[in-house]
Amino acid sequence: MPSASLLQNPRILLTSQTPFHRNLRHHIHTPNALPLQAPLSVTTSPPKSSILEIQKSILSQTQKASDIASEYLARIRQMEPRIQSFLHVAEEEKVMREAEKVDMKVERGEEIGPLAGVLVGVKDNICTKDMPSTAGSKILEGYRPAFDATAVRKMKKLGAIIVGKTNLDEFGMGSTTEGSGFHGTANPWDLSRVPGGSSGGSAAAVSARQCVVSLGSDTGGSVRQPASFCGVVGIKPTYGRVSRFGLMAYASSLDVIGCMGSSVIDAAILLNAISGHDKLDSTSSKHEIVDYASDIISKDFTNSSNPLKGLRVGMIKETLGEGVDAAVTSSIQASALHLEALGCVVTEVSLPSFSLGLPAYYVLASSESSSNLSRYDSVRYGNQIAADEITALYGDSRANGFGSEVKMRILMGTYALSAGYYDAYYKRAQRVRTLIKKSFKDALDSNDILISPAAPSAAYRIGEKTNDALAMYAGDISTVNVNLAGLPALVVPCGFVEGGTSGLPVGLQMIGAAFDEAKLLKVGHVFEQTLQNCKFVPPLLSESYGSDSTQ
Amino acid sequence: MTLVCFRGVKANTFGLFPAHLFRGKTGALFCTLTHSGAKNKIRSESLQTQTASSLNKVNPAQTRKESRRTTHGFEAVIGIETHVQLSTTTKAFCNCPYSYGSLPNTTICPVCMGHPGTLPVLNSKIVEFAVKLGLALNCKLFMSSKFDRKQYFYPDLPKGYQISQFDIPIATGGYVDLDIPLEFGGGHRKFGITRVHMEEDAGKSIHSENQSYSQVDLNRAGVPLLEIVSEPDMRTGVEAAEYAAEMQRLVRYMGISNGNMQEGSMRCDVNISVRPVGQSEFGTKVEIKNMNSFNAMNRAVDFEISRQVNLHNQGQGNQIVQETRLWDDGSQKTITMRKKEGLSDYRYFPEPDLPEVVITEEYVNGLRASLPEIPELKRRRFEQMGLNMQDVLFLTNDINVANFFDSTVEKGGDIKQTANWIMSDIAAYLKSSQLLITEMKLTSEELAVLISSIKSGVISGKIGKEILFELMSKGGSVKSMIKEKDLVQITDPSAIEALVNKVINNNPKQLEQYRGGKTKLQGYFAGQAMKESKGKANPILLNKLLLEKLNAKP
């Protein structure tokens, strides 16, 4: 193992005198910035792919799909009162029936799909025809779509079982899941903290092993930041890689469906299942589909001494400065060292327009959302407040149906698009977006991947950011730029910082060139499999099930 | 004049036009404006003003004796926005079909109902139709255009925005040529086209009579439209109506819309302002909607012009406000629908769900090559063939009629004769049997044969007329019909002489009267002789011989 115990002792390594290490020095300020050791056990094995394990068990008939399903259902029953990852859980009978079908197929010797018997949580802003889909908004309470989202349809076709609809900030607008119109979700690592957002339910459910993998959506970091907060893997694919058909639009030019899992391979298999052009979404790409999983499954990278030899990694300078927790910075720097040990050439890169990303993002996302949410007028579907005339019907229904964050963004967006302000806000933000795209392109011309923290801190305390929208928005600094550029990014748990009873997980964000998901997943997989003494299973789960029952 | 009347009566009965075109009392004109009242009004007005030519900014060189372009020292400035519903098999952004008159909310899907998570997918046929019309209107095409969202709340607008084109429409800066019918003074016009853009239609709101509830029908939501915006180049109701008529002809020629105004497949919003002659700024603009025929357009525009001019003359010019007025066919007036309170802000921004619309030179050239000859070019060509403007306008009004004419001439039909047959007997037949010219059994080949058979004297014109009806209703060939029924014209003088002798001998009493001075009876004898020949006798020869016999010394 090239990098054993790196994370435990980054300071020791910093004494070695490579140029990169010199560059790193000034980032380390305080002793308490040291990443904490994962407390669960002294020796841990790297995470295995749950999907592959399930497939293996079912096919070899060592475990039945129905047994696996009931195990997960039991965990949902047990955990849900404390975590509340879901807005809707599928009827147990239905889930069991689906699982039994898989078992029958195996018994009859029929072929089963790569996701057969895999229980998937689906973010509630993604349409499912046999379950309510509300996007976490009161205005859609009880709404059942007439169709499955393309991503859902594709997963089902490969055998996936939808186990429930996960909680989120209303319409994806938020970073804590506290903005859900129904209830919050707790972080399985520390129930007094948020799981992040907006795909907080999807991240918490995977983290607490209430489902095997989950779908989230990422407009400005909504898959990556909760993945980081909950210690799971999350991938935001290139814009257009996955069809948006059936994803309730927040900001159409930024939205993308992403995957979460407890290992990189799981995320890769799920991404494989949902990628591709869709004639129902004109913005979905016809770019060639790569098999994201096979390559990394078939090769054993751990045997090589430097499996990532020659890979050029750029560490984004602007994501490690002011406003970023020192402990997070250390984790990222330690991760950089780990990558170096794996053979990567790590240098610091600067994206000068980076800081402009946040305001540009909030202008563009709010503008598009103000338009996208116009359809929720309660005329054809959704909660309607009876009124004597049409403007009151609109006004009352929307006032009652939308939460305050959504209203604020509609107001901001409407303002930004108004005559006389359009040029100063929307148009200017578009110009910033062009700049950001270009600076990413330049950085990725000279680097294979870029790295940064997924968020400037570990999970917030519940209520910590609810009264300070700007502070919450600032937390999105390292993720929103990637959406503006439309690039793929993978978040892999990389360390812990102080907090909770046993430390809080932190994620490393890896950003790739457009449609270069395969490279990200490969690097992420090697990184994950070579990381020592970090077990990203929340203590809650260890208490209930013992440390090794749920890998 | 007799010819005009003849054609007016016959031609207006042509079964090729929507019934609403013929609602006027007498149908004085065949092609567009059928209201005789309107015609008379304009004629009398045109007598009063002969000095309008100096005001014509479109083509100052033109003579302007036709209709008046100024009223009491004021001139009107008219611009028209035309919405044309495209006759694609499916809607603009989903696969729903659309057919007018379907039961409410039966041709809808989650996409055109604006359900969460749905996305628009552009029907490429719309781009094709837009490019075709852009080319036909001599526009400059944007090789890369985009869609935008036009945002407003209304129950029949499911998404809360209309997908339209804002700052980069598919076509801009064109013009349209047209010829004003002689009845309205005639003359050629060229009106500017500002732009053509693609957009989707909204649904329909149906309000209950007591206003206690409203219903929404989304069948029409998402149906593709082209909006054609004209320059403010028109000055009179006739010009406005003729502009609209030319748009209808164009979209029908291109096969991109049925252009039906009654069903709302073509809707014109007319913007009218008046200003003192010589003033360059525009006056306050009033928008008029709800005109479902060209005739109504003509009258609505003229009404609105005189309303505005009267207000000016009464010193109440400030009462002309920016507003939308409806044409009320019942009272023949425009009435206020809504006053515009400030400028509405539609907050346009680029539609993020649709990629840019990129077209290539190759694509455009392909479409250009497939375009039918536009009405203007047809008119000029028919004119050069020697037809007068009346005939030209009649024949070019419908592309199928024009094609039938062209085809007949191509197969040897005499130009003038072909025009006459089509405009008289064929038009009358189509009207009475409610058929389109493409639906009757007569082919252009047979019409050409029929015409040359008459010209060469094989059959008489009378026989020709008789077999024409059979050809139209049952089909068949002229030659076999002539043979089968033994219809060849008798041109042998001795045979005709025998016929004449027989008739004279059989009518001694009439002969006596004739010779006694009642020469009118010649017609009687001619009729009897023709009857005897079963209509086959050459009429000229027959009359010549008959006269000789009648006037011969007993």
UniProtKB/TrEMBL annotation, chain A:
Which reaction does this enzyme catalyse, per its entry?
L-glutamyl-tRNA(Gln) + L-glutamine + ATP + H2O = L-glutaminyl-tRNA(Gln) + L-glutamate + ADP + phosphate + H(+)
Keyword check for Protein biosynthesis, yes or no: yes
What family does the entry list?
Belongs to the amidase family. GatA subfamily.
InterPro entries from the xrefs?
Amidase (IPR000120), Amidase_CS (IPR020556), Amidase_dom (IPR023631), AS_sf (IPR036928), GatA (IPR004412)
EC assignment: the record states 6.3.5.7
| Gene3D superfamilies to which the protein is assigned, alphabetical | Amidase signature (AS) domain
Where is this protein primarily located? mitochondrion
The record's Gene Ontology biological-process terms are: glutaminyl-tRNAGln biosynthesis via transamidation; mitochondrial translation
Q: Does the keyword Mitochondrion apply?
A: yes
The residue ranges of the Amidase domain are: 68-521
Tell me more from the record: This protein may be expected to contain an N-terminal transit peptide but none has been predicted.
Q: What is this protein called?
A: Glutamyl-tRNA(Gln) amidotransferase subunit A, chloroplastic/mitochondrial
Q: What is the annotated role of this protein in its UniProt record?
A: Allows the formation of correctly charged Gln-tRNA(Gln) through the transamidation of misacylated Glu-tRNA(Gln) in chloroplasts and mitochondria. The reaction takes place in the presence of glutamine and ATP through an activated gamma-phospho-Glu-tRNA(Gln).
Location of this chain's protein in the cell: Mitochondrion; Plastid, Chloroplast stroma
MF-aspect GO terms: ATP binding; glutaminyl-tRNA synthase (glutamine-hydrolyzing) activity; hydrolase activity, acting on carbon-nitrogen (but not peptide) bonds, in linear amides; transferase activity
Which residues constitute the catalytic centre? 123, 198, 222
Keywords, ordered alphabetically: ATP-binding, Chloroplast, Ligase, Mitochondrion, Nucleotide-binding, Plastid, Protein biosynthesis, Transferase
Organism from which the protein derives: Zostera marina (Eelgrass)
What do we know about how this protein assembles, alone or with others?
Answer: Subunit of the heterotrimeric GatCAB amidotransferase (AdT) complex, composed of A, B and C subunits.
From TrEMBL, chain B:
Q: Which Gene3D superfamilies match?
A: 1.10.10.410
Keywords attached to this Swiss-Prot or TrEMBL record, sorted alphabetically, are: ATP-binding, Chloroplast, Ligase, Mitochondrion, Nucleotide-binding, Plastid, Protein biosynthesis, Transferase
What PROSITE patterns does the entry give?
A: GATB
The residue ranges of the Asn/Gln amidotransferase domain are: 403-550
EC top class, as a word: ligase
Cellular location(s): Mitochondrion; Plastid, Chloroplast
- SUPFAM superfamilies linked to this entry: GatB/YqeY motif (SSF89095), Glutamine synthetase/guanido kinase (SSF55931)
Q: Return one GO MF term.
A: transferase activity
Q: What is its EC number?
A: 6.3.5.-
User: Would you kindly state one Gene Ontology biological process term found in this protein's UniProt entry?
Assistant: mitochondrial translation
Its cellular-component GO annotations read:
chloroplast; glutamyl-tRNA(Gln) amidotransferase complex; mitochondrion
According to UniProt, the reaction catalysed is:
L-glutamyl-tRNA(Gln) + L-glutamine + ATP + H2O = L-glutaminyl-tRNA(Gln) + L-glutamate + ADP + phosphate + H(+); L-aspartyl-tRNA(Asn) + L-glutamine + ATP + H2O = L-asparaginyl-tRNA(Asn) + L-glutamate + ADP + phosphate + 2 H(+)
Q: Which Pfam families does this entry report, sorted A to Z?
A: GatB_N, GatB_Yqey
Residue ranges, annotated region (Disordered): 49-68
Per the record, the major location class is: mitochondrion
Which InterPro entries has this protein been placed in? Asn/Gln-tRNA_amidoTrfase_suB/E (IPR017959), Asn/Gln-tRNA_Trfase_suB/E_cat (IPR006075), Asn/Gln_amidotransferase (IPR018027), Asn/Gln_tRNA_amidoTrase-B-like (IPR003789), GatB (IPR004413), GatB_Yqey_C_2 (IPR023168), Gln-tRNA_amidoTrfase_suB_CS (IPR017958), Gln_synth/guanido_kin_cat_dom (IPR014746)
Cite the record's Polar residues compositional bias ranges. 49-62
User: Taxonomically, which superkingdom?
Assistant: Eukaryota
Q: Which family does it belong to?
A: Belongs to the GatB/GatE family. GatB subfamily.
The entry's function note states: Allows the formation of correctly charged Gln-tRNA(Gln) through the transamidation of misacylated Glu-tRNA(Gln) in chloroplasts and mitochondria. The reaction takes place in the presence of glutamine and ATP through an activated gamma-phospho-Glu-tRNA(Gln).
Q: How does it assemble?
A: Subunit of the heterotrimeric GatCAB amidotransferase (AdT) complex, composed of A, B and C subunits.
Mind telling me what this protein is named? Answer: Glutamyl-tRNA(Gln) amidotransferase subunit B, chloroplastic/mitochondrial
